[in-house]
Specification:
Layout lengths: L4 E3 L29 E5 L9 E5 L2 E7 L5 E5 L13 E2 L3 E3 L6 E3 L4 E3 L18 E2 L1 E4 L2 E4 L22 E9 L3 H9 L4 H4 L13 E9 L2 E8 L5 H4 L6 E7 L3 E8 L2 E13 L2 E10 L8 H28 L3 E3 L5 H19 L10 E6 L1
Antiparallel strand pairs: 1-20, 2-12, 3-4, 4-5, 5-10, 6-7, 7-8, 8-9, 11-12, 13-19, 14-15, 14-21, 15-16, 16-17, 17-18, 18-19
Length: 368
């Protein structure tokens, strides 16, 4: 178990727990290198349409091959650095718009049309880095890790039911990945940041008691009954049961059930670069009638996510001036757990072994 404690200065505007001499000190300040990150909606690429994305300082180009399988390549021609996403794609290869170099979807150079018959250069060894990509829950996921395969990597989230509809909001947050991810596990900020009539009609702080259990690469607030006073829950009727899971690297999965009715509210953090993170919020439902409310849902989701965006950016500015943080009380234990999970993932990777969840079942109390 973790105790309530003060966390020291990580030195770069991010947040990290106490130093661990067994690890590279910089590793705890960076997003996990070997993990699946959300890089956009599945329907963002189709046919010969490409999508350029940033992922932890890398520029990637996403697309689909002739049979619809997604691919991810480094978005940089090795010749002069041109973005391949600006060129032509015919379903089998990408052509750089600068000098016409052509690359297959395995990243290998297939043609250099400017070579003359007297050139003896062998371009078959030139390649663009290819990254593993998966599809799950309506999104594309990329692991940017370039080390040896075989690591114990958290799985991308799945939905678990057939959705009748889906609403998605994406916002860029000018804050570090760690700070942004902490907002996904922090129960204390809800009463102050998300004080909206439609989400939290009661303004009274109440003591919450929840049980948390370790799950693969994370922890889960076990299924519990929730209030039906919220307009959101009233749409479901009955007595909704809610389960909230967090898993590395930065995934929050809220699952709501009321009889046969299912709603899932998923949020993903994706590192774009230093102190720049994408927050993606996806709402799914299995009741066709709720699709009529999709425009309203999108507006409310954006309002909710914008509240997080604004407070995180102000907090990052404070950490840039003095990068220290105090984690205090049981409401901050999930934030401490995040760092314990991250340290274990890094240690397991360095030692070439399976991840061992360091957490234990625990009941937490806080006011919100």
């Amino acid at each position: 178990m973790l105790s309530n404690t003060t966390r020291p200065d990580p030195g770069d505007g991010g947040i990290a727990p106490e130093p661990d001499t067994a690890l590279d000190p910089d590793a705890m300040r960076r997003p996990l290198s070997d993990a699946w990150y959300c890089v956009g909606r599945s329907d963002a690429v189709s046919g010969t349409r490409l999508k350029a994305v940033d992922l932890d300082g890398e520029q990637l180009v996403l697309g689909r091959d002739a049979v619809g399988q997604p691919f991810a390549l480094r978005d940089r021609c090795p010749h002069r650095g041109m973005a391949l996403s600006k060129g032509r794609f015919d379903g089998e290869g990408l052509t750089c718009p600068f000098h016409g170099w052509r690359f297959g979807l395995d990243g290998r150079c297939r043609d250099v049309p400017t070579l003359s018959s007297s050139d003896q250069a062998d371009f078959s060894k030139i390649a663009v880095q290819r990254f593993p990509v998966r599809e799950s829950a309506g999104f594309l996921w990329v692991d940017p890790y370039l080390g040896p395969a075989g690591g114990d990597v958290p799985a991308p989230p799945e939905l678990g039911f057939e959705a009748a509809g889906m609403a998605v909001v994406e916002l860029v947050v000018e804050a570090s990945f760690d700070l942004t991810t902490l907002s996904l596990v922090d129960p204390g900020h809800v009463a102050f940041v998300h004080d909206s009539w439609w989400f939290r009609p009661s303004k009274t702080l109440r003591e919450k008691v929840k049980t948390f259990t370790p799950t693969p690469h994370g922890f889960t607030m076990t299924s519990h009954g929730t209030t039906t006073s919220s307009p959101v829950y009233k749409l479901l009727g009955g007595a909704p049961q809610v389960e909230i899971e967090f898993r590395l690297p930065g995934v929050r999965l809220e699952r709501i059930e009321a009889g046969a009715k299912r709603v899932a509210n998923y949020t993903f953090a994706t590192p774009l670069g230093r102190n720049r993170t994408m927050l993606t919020n996806a709402l799914y439902w299995n009741m066709p009638a709720l699709s009529l409310l999709k425009p309203v849902a999108g507006v409310l989701m954006r309002q909710f996510l914008t509240q997080d965006q604004q407070v995180l950016q102000h907090a990052q500015a404070g950490l840039d001036r003095k990068p220290t943080m105090v984690l205090f009380g049981q409401g901050d234990l999930p934030s401490q757990w995040y760092f314990r999970l991250k340290r274990e993932a890094l240690t397991a990777q360095a030692e070439g072994r399976a991840f061992r969840n360091p957490l234990a079942r625990q009941e937490l109390r806080w006011r919100s």
